[in-house]
Amino acid sequence: MGGLLSDDAVIPVLAALRSTVVVLDDDDEVLRASASAYTYNLVHDDAVCVPEVSEMVALVRQDGEPREQEITVPRGRVSGSGHFFLHVRVASIGEGRLLILIEDRSAAKRLEDMRRDLVANISHELKTPVGAIALLAETIEDSADDAALVAGFAARMRAEATRLGVLVQDVIELSRVQDGDALVSPEDVDVDAVVAESVDRVRVEAQARSIVVVSGGTAGLMVRGDASLIVTAVRNLLDNAVRYSEPHTRVSVGVSLDPADPGLVRIAVVDQGIGIKPEDQGRVFERFFRVDRARSRATGGTGLGLAIVKHVAANHGGTIELWSAPGRGSTFTLVLPRLIPDEGAGRLIRNEEEDHR
Ligand code: ADP
């Protein structure tokens, strides 16, 4: 190897590049390749083994002009294991050698797909209430001289407007928890206070449906994060527990330390409601997924509640667990890292401030 590759300075430069690099000699044989070139299945037996890239190489050989292209390669031999989305640039670097630079854009592509999906979903969900409101307004115009009819349609219009408001609020909440990181400027959060506030907020709804809400468990536990987000998450779980239960049943919130890991706090919301079939259990956390659209709609659901809960859990370095049996009920458990007050740095700073007062 002479020229470029014998130059001791160049090899570390190639190694330091964030991109994946492959260098070909004048026979298109691989002289040097980053380990990731093998991960992306681009190189095999000292040769480039992806047809699109080989074509780019041939074109650059013909006229010396660099080429760029986005390509998709399978992640692995197993079908269904997904794809890598790669940006590939091929350029001549003299002495018959070619440099191939590869950037993995899979994560960016995934994010873009997710955004596009979200926008499509939201537009679809917004169309229903907006369409209903337009239709009701038209009907009111047509029956302007029938006061009873007008009153009835106006009430339905108000219900649709409320639904629209709730949906917009949930979308805003979801985008807030999707982007946010509750641990950037966290506060000490008292779990008992969070539970009490959440229970308070569903009390009226529960009473209206003759459902008793109780709470209990280990008192005095703390976590770290954003109290208002945790209240939102627990309240969403309670809303659902009430919404998907029959009258004269019981909903409870239990706080405990994880028996296997005392560094974790478990907040379990237990209902005796309709339950969730095993095949739907993995899907209920997806945005806009509802087992029964009509029931969700009738009770004012948006299909976003559990997506929000999942993001709040993740933002706090925690998870959400689900146990459910159709006809018996469901238990959703928010698991969050525990804050042991005396060890928390936040607590130390606060004590110092108090000393200065
Ligand atoms: P929604 O606004 O429709 O309640 P969620 O994201 O909160 O949306 O929940 C998604 C779906 O999961 C619900 O439509 C319902 O089918 C199911 N689900 C959620 N919580 C419960 C529960 N406690 N019992 C039974 N089904 C539930």
TrEMBL record:
Regions crossing the membrane: none
UniProt EC number: 2.7.13.3
Enzyme class: transferase
GO molecular function list: ATP binding; phosphoprotein phosphatase activity; phosphorelay sensor kinase activity
Gene Ontology CC: plasma membrane
Compartments where located: Cell membrane
Keywords in alphabetical order: ATP-binding, Cell membrane, Kinase, Membrane, Nucleotide-binding, Phosphoprotein, Transferase, Two-component regulatory system
Top-level taxonomic group: Bacteria
PROSITE patterns named in the record: HIS_KIN
Domain Histidine kinase: 121-340
GO biological process: cellular response to phosphate starvation
Catalyzed chemical reaction(s): ATP + protein L-histidine = ADP + protein N-phospho-L-histidine
Ranges in a coiled coil: none
Name this protein carries in UniProt: Sensor-like histidine kinase SenX3
Organism: Actinomyces respiraculi
